[in-house]
């Protein structure tokens, strides 16, 4: 379309045009327009007439609602051009939509990891902001005594202990995993094949002050379910400073299960969690060896005692046997204590009053309405994000397509107008 | 020429040719448009192309396109006739472009000059011949406006719609073309 000209028409021109219109309408016109009026009448009377044959043909086409006649080359070409154009635009649109979809999927998939990471972190926002609960780079195990216990992150914990064991000739490497910032931390299971490993864990929970007793009861329930023992406990209820602590002993085989359950209590969220392991194989073997030596010594001394001939010999052997038995008793007690440490893991649970957990209860991974709503919200959020990205990716494509279409239409119009000038 | 669609006044909603309006189905409306415009479209196209055979094809193509694109008609942008003539114009210009590419003159321009003998007197016949000759010599752009005005019976506003210019611009173009014709006729005389 050419730009519209809003200039008022010249009065002389307007008068001439009125005269022409009047002439065509059969009205009399001023004598000064007689010549133009005559030309106008001659032009109107020279109107080309539609051939009767073509008129019939057109009526037939109208009757079949302008289905293209197979014998019309122009029509066939036009229809073919139209189909090609439609096919082009459909394919272009499909290609653009496909590209946008791929981009959206790539972006969403790329951000998906971050999204899930954020999700698990967001469940314990207090943990992320609390410096004391951040992952520790290295710490010493409280139960290791003189043994250095390198602490590894949860991701490296699986492979580190075996290497440490091999290197532990004179000292025992006790890898310790510290995990925090997750409502359901990954349960660590150190390799214990043929080794004597003492496991312990520290779990700090946060619960609403009014829920301390409920959480404490949940802890008791979990301990009962795994046939554990509450060595000691302290629950302080009331006010804003509720507090509870538990010293638990659970069968080592049930430790991962216990920690998993304790980490998913309904009314508490995990503030921090530390898993410690200590390899005591060398200590255990040394004690067992000492016990065997002491028993062998006692047996030998008893044989010697049976053959003793003098009172002095009897007294001396008796004293040595007494010492050997004392050593045996001590070693047996040590072995028993070590076995107990290996067979029962110590868990220290502390519950502090703090930011209440979200109303969505996630009891042991059960699926409820609240969790479904939460998941639905996440799905909708991700879907909205994907749609937003798709729109962002489609917008420039749409702009380019629109620009190309506009330029194409303008060029087409210009070429058509040029066709008029060339005739 | 006898049938003219009644102009709608104060139409606010989009009126396309595929809707039933005032109890008339879209097909009835389209048929009415066809009946009232078929001869005018042909007259316009044949004047523009100066090739009756091609004009028939283009006329048929214009109605076929109008039928297919009836949903694109928007009364707010003009009357149905102007819309139809716009389609016919594009089809005719495409035909002109195609001809320019092939560089073949299908018909001798002198052949499409109508027979001057229409039972007029000798003086009128001479005058008619002069007008026909002058019209044949006009460039296509000016022939087009003559065709729209005198062969298709359009108002200046409708001519402006079809050409995509303002009404005053169309009027000025028509005036200049008529003056050109008048001078050419006088020169012939």
Written account of the structure:
The complex is a heterodimer of chains A (423) and B (189). With 423 residues, chain A is of the alpha/beta class. Chain A contains eleven helices and seven strands. In chain A, strands 1-2-6-3-7-5-4 form a seven-stranded mixed β-sheet. In chain A, a hairpin with a 6-residue loop joins strand 4 and strand 5. In chain A, helix 1 packs across helix 2, helix 4 runs antiparallel to helix 11 and helix 9 runs antiparallel to helix 10. The longest helix of chain A is centred in the last third of the chain and has 53 residues. Chain A is rod-shaped. Chain A starts with 10 loop residues before the first helix and ends with a helix. By secondary structure, chain B is an all-alpha fold. Chain B contains seven helices and no strands. In chain B, helix 1 packs across helix 5. The N terminus of chain B is likely disordered. At the A-B interface, helix 1, helix 2, helix 3, helix 4 and helix 11 of A face helix 1, helix 2, helix 3, helix 4 and helix 5 of B.
Number of helices of chain B: 7
Which secondary-structure class do the elements of chain A indicate? alpha/beta
The number of strands of chain A is 7
Give me the Rg of chain A, rounded. 47 Å
Radius of gyration of chain B: 18 Å
The low-pLDDT segments of chain A are 1-5, 112-183
Keywords:
heterodimer, A: 423 residues, alpha/beta, 7-stranded mixed beta sheet, 7 strands, rod-shaped, disordered N terminus, B: 189 residues, mainly alpha, globular
Topology:
The complex is a heterodimer of chains A (423) and B (189).
Chain A: H1 11-24, H2 34-45, H3 52-63, H4 73-122, H5 125-129, E1 151-153, H6 160-167, E2 176-180, E3 197-207, H7 212-225, E4 229-236, E5 243-251, H8 255-262, E6 268-279, H9 281-306, H10 311-343, E7 344-353, H11 369-421
Parallel strand pairs in A: 1-2, 3-7
Antiparallel strand pairs in A: 2-6, 3-6, 4-5, 5-7
Chain B: H1 26-49, H2 52-68, H3 80-102, H4 122-137, H5 140-151, H6 156-163, H7 167-188
Helix pairs in contact in B: 1-2, 1-3, 1-5, 2-3, 3-6, 4-7, 5-7, 6-7
